[in-house]
Automatic annotation (TrEMBL):
SUPFAM superfamilies: P-loop containing nucleoside triphosphate hydrolases (SSF52540). InterPro entries: NPHP3-like_N, P-loop_NTPase. The keyword Repeat applies. Keywords: Repeat. It holds the Pfam family NPHP3_N. This is Nephrocystin 3-like N-terminal domain-containing protein. The lineage of its organism: Eukaryota, Fungi, Dikarya, Basidiomycota, Agaricomycotina. The keyword Repeat applies. Residues 47-201 form the Nephrocystin 3-like N-terminal domain.
Amino acid sequence: MVRTVIKRNHPSSLYSLAHQLRKVLPNVYGVQHVPCLSGTRTKTLAAISKWADEETKARPIFLLLDVAGSGKSTVAKHMANQWTREGRLLARFFFSRDTKTTMSTDDFCLTVANALISRDPELKPPVKAFEELPDFGLFSFEEKFNGLVISPLEKLNRDAILIIDALDECDNENGSRDELLNALCGQQASTPRLRILATGRPEFDI
């Protein structure tokens, strides 16, 4: 079961000014984004925090959908900062059409796996063992995601949170976004060692 929230568009002049002043080249860690201003989007942030703290295994994905410019990336950056401060095992990937790298899923699985390793070195042996398999380059996206991320977490009985921002900005010219969405949907039936906060515009496939 996917927890979905569709937000209404409430433009903030203060946020817009902060965003305009932040002329930073996008990267997959979302350095181009700013967190929520104090006292804003409190209901959305509270709903996400409540979901992340739930002990039930029924809802591994929280999907935040809204139109362009509504502050989804701001919320994602805010939660990334909060979960980092709380010391949770966190990985993140912010898609953006501004660069070829941030549109692509080519490095998605390794980026997520390396982020988790940086927070828990015990994850490194199973991740590297899978990455060094002779036929690694022949695996599908979902096989790489399961082998680099899901399986190591399950082996070590570790819970983790993954933030994926702007799913709609992931390139789908060669079916990359389809592969990513299929891999995420596949997690609904597995042991949710990994909780996923994802954002995007409410497009048909998302």
